[in-house]
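Example for tutorial group B:
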């Protein structure tokens, strides 16, 4: 259970039941920090977004249950689901030490949680002023790479290591789908920012479209769920943060999980 306190307009808390559902591709903040957005589900808080987080936060793998001290500042991010790790800027170099792994869900618990989390539609989430949700596609119509005309230059740190952001890749992955009980008049066409997609492109830059097959989007043996969230400055625009899937039956599947 989390503990809650307020100081001015800033709420501080400790969330100790956050199941990581996914992380987004990397970003470079204006002050030079290389970061990713983490999202998950808490039985005490519901959907949770934590940003920024250190790219190499060891315990932030999907399906880990983590404990983390957080703070919420509505003047910085109006979305109810959005939190920062306490001292995220001041303690950046050691921020990963504040994320504690409580347990790791086994396959059956993962499936049970995915079934238990309420399902929605991006349009319904907009109407309800919610910024995150889980959708179950009734049909995936298309998945394709959209070229980025002018990718951002790849930055480097003091050691010369590359610091890529999502915008420094030559393309983005988009998925067009209809969700179950969809309230949209047409289909959803959303940018997919899953961390594993960018990890794959780092390792296989000459075979970018292979990521579509790796995600099993059109494999009838797999069931997919999309963990989606909106953009702070474009609240009606949703992106796919991560794709949750399991093989029908109870066969252990690996595919993209090695990158998450």
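The residue assignment follows.
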């Amino acid at each position: 259970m989390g503990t809650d306190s307020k100081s001015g307009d800033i709420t501080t808390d400790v969330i100790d039941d956050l199941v990581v559902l996914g992380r987004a591709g990397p970003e470079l903040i204006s002050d030079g920090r290389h970061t990713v957005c983490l999202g998950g589900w808490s039985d005490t808080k519901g959907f949770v977004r934590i940003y920024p987080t250190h790219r190499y936060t060891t315990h932030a793998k999907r399906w880990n249950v983590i404990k983390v001290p957080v703070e919420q500042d509505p003047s910085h991010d109006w979305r109810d689901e959005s939190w920062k790790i306490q001292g995220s800027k001041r303690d950046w170099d050691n921020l990963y030490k504040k994320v504690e792994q409580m347990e790791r869900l086994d396959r059956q618990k993962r499936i049970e949680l995915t079934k238990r989390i309420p399902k929605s539609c991006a349009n319904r989430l907009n109407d309800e002023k919610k910024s995150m949700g889980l959708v179950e596609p009734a049909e995936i119509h298309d998945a394709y790479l959209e070229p980025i005309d002018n990718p951002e230059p790849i930055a480097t740190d003091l050691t010369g290591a590359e610091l890529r952001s999502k915008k420094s890749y030559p393309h983005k992955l988009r998925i067009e789908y209809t969700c179950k009980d969809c309230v949209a008049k047409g289909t959803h066409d959303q940018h997919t920012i899953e961390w594993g997609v960018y990890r794959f492109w780092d390792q296989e830059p000459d075979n970018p479209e292979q990521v579509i097959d790796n995600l099993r989007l059109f494999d009838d043996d797999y069931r997919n769920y999309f963990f989606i969230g909106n953009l702070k400055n474009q609240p009606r625009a949703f992106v796919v943060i991560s794709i949750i899937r399991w093989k029908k039956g109870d066969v252990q599947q690996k595919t993209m999980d090695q990158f998450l």
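Residues 191 and 240 are 6 Å apart (CA to CA). Compare this with the pattern of hydrophobic and polar residues in the output above.
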